[in-house]
Amino acid sequence: MKKSTFLIRFIDIGLIILFGFIIISDITVRSQIELPGSDPGEPQEERELNLFVINIEPNNQYRLADFVESTIIGTYDGIEHLESALRSLIDEIQSQGKSPVALIEPDETVTMQRLIDLMDLCDQIGIPKNVNVESLRL
């Protein structure tokens, strides 16, 4: 019987300390953090998307193709040549009033670093991107 009264007193003391900390803690919000995203009050301009595919070939080549028409825009050796081609393609797409979106399709033998380099390049240029999951074999 003495053990059960000790346990009850121990729980009572623990709850008193817990409620004491809750009462004296300061829970006021001190800063207002701006979260990323669009302001719902601003009207957003709806632009037509222009999808293009970037294939990562195993021999350090990249192939650009139009998604809708399935026509090859060009094949480029190295990411430096691809960067200049992407910049001119993006300028052309934006001059037509469309938003460019890159669909990345890596070959199954390509290293992950080449995929990451291409994704970093898309981020630098400001192209929204998506990796075609069907071409990845997990």
Give a verbal description of the structure:
This protein has 138 residues and is α/β, with parallel strands linked by helices. The chain has a domain at 48-133: 2-Layer Sandwich (Nucleotidyltransferase, domain 5), CATH 3.30.420. Helices cover 40% and strands 24% of the residues. It contains three helices and five strands. A five-stranded mixed beta sheet has the order 3-2-1-4-5, covered by helices on one side. α2 (78-95) packs parallel to α3. The chain is elongated, with a radius of gyration of 28 Å. The termini are far apart. The mean pLDDT is 83.
Notable characteristics:
3 helices, about 140 residues, 5-stranded mixed beta sheet, alpha/beta, Nucleotidyltransferase, domain 5, about 40% helix, single chain
Please give a quick description of this structure.
This protein is α/β, with parallel strands linked by helices.
Instruction: Report the CATH topology name of the domain at 48-133.
Output: Nucleotidyltransferase, domain 5
CATH C-level label of the domain at 48-133: Alpha Beta
Average pLDDT for all residues: 83
| CA-based shape | elongated
Q: Report, as a whole number of angstroms, the end-to-end distance.
A: 61 Å
The percentage helix is 25-40%
Q: Gyration radius, to the nearest Å? A: 28 Å
Q: Per CATH, which architecture of the domain at 48-133? A: 2-Layer Sandwich
Total of DSSP H or I helical runs spanning 4+ residues: 3
Low-confidence stretches: none
- As laid out across the biggest beta sheet, the strand order is 3-2-1-4-5
| Biggest sheet overview | 5 strands, mixed
